[in-house]
Amino acid sequence: MALKFEEVMSQLKSGKYAPVYLLMGEEPFYIDCIAEYIENNALPEADRDFNQVVLYGRDTHPDEVVANAKQFAFGADYRVVILKEAKDLSKFDQLTPYFAHPQPSTILVICYKYGKLKAAQYKNCDKSTVIFTSEPVKDYQLAAWVQKQATEHNFKLNQQAANIITEHIGNDLSRIDNEFKKLKIILPEGSEITPEIIEKNIGISKEYNIFELQNALGERNVDKAFRICLNFAHNMKDNPNVKTIAVLYTFYSKMLAYMLLPDNSPQSLERVYGKINPYVMDINRKYASRYSLAQVRKIMSVLREYDLKSKGVDSDAPDEELLMEMIYRILH
Question: What's the number of CA atoms in the CB half-sphere (13 Å) around residue 323?
Fold first, then answer.
């Protein structure tokens, strides 16, 4: 049966285990979470030496996996067999007969990261088999995911702090989660993670980041915008132009869409900005009021031009020079 992540974890936490878990997909974080929970909780620690084994795809053979899975538990309720890096297992299809008739007292966990099994490889699975496909979090959902993950770790995190983390770490869910785990060592439960805490403990500047640049441009604060750009110019590896332009393009394209709305009803605003709190909406309105429709259209054209130049089209200028030139043209 195909389940969502929350459904799988709910079953595991209630002590309900399936004989086979087929965990696949492009996002490794959720696969690791499920596999680690089973590895650490299905058996008492005293029973693991004789009843729990971890195998790796490139170092094993399907026959070894099946042989381990078919063994009976020794003095325990379950035998746990975890196959990591299953995508590297040669002759994977030789496992499929076992999926149809699994050993009831075994929990077999297949971790097939960065890919998906073919339907034919699991279409005849036992009906109790758990099938989970791990999909990446979309970029526009990432800040909300970070806030949700902070709550999971009993922290408070506002939108600004979430944006700083997502911008600088990106879509690496495992790293983001690990940063929260590290903060749990030094912060009391229920603490608010502020930009200052992020800068001190995660190493991300609260002042020189893409969202502060976006805000400076929204406010048409020339001094602040160029101060941030100078910092970017000295750290182009962490702030590549392509990434900066992508964020600014989204910022101004939403501003343009807002300007073209037939009305300011909640439904219309949600189509442009999604579900955001009224305070954030007021900030976006304020930014839009500082630009004319013609200016925003010109800026969109400038961003497209410098996106091509940053990729080497019709320009061999250094990235630092292109960045400063682009920001000047946006503000003038």
Answer: 25
Q: Give 119-156 pLDDT, tens digit per residue.
A: 888 888 888 899 999 999 887 788 889 999 999 999 99
Q: Which residues contact 200 (CB under 8 A, 6 or more apart)?
A: none
pLDDT at 205: 63
Residues 27 and 120 in one domain: yes
**pLDDT, tens digit (0-9, with 9 covering 90-100), for 72-115:** 999 898 999 999 999 999 999 999 999 999 999 999 999 999 99
Q: Token digits for 104?
A: 């009831």
Domain coverage including residue 310: 210-331
Listed in sequence order, the DSSP H helices in the chain are: 5-13, 28-41, 48-51, 62-70, 96-100, 142-152, 159-169, 173-186, 195-201, 210-218, 222-233, 241-259, 266-273, 278-289, 293-310, 319-331
- Quote the CA–CA distance of 24 and 26 in Å, as a whole number: 7
**Residue 203's pLDDT is what?**
67
Specify burial of residue 283 (Cβ count, 10 A radius: 0-12, 13-18, 19+). Answer: middle
Beta bridge partners of 107: 80
pLDDT band at 299 (very low <50, low <70, confident <90, very high): very high
Same-domain status, 9 and 110: yes
179: Cβ–Cβ under 8 A, 6 or more apart, which residues?
165, 169, 201, 202
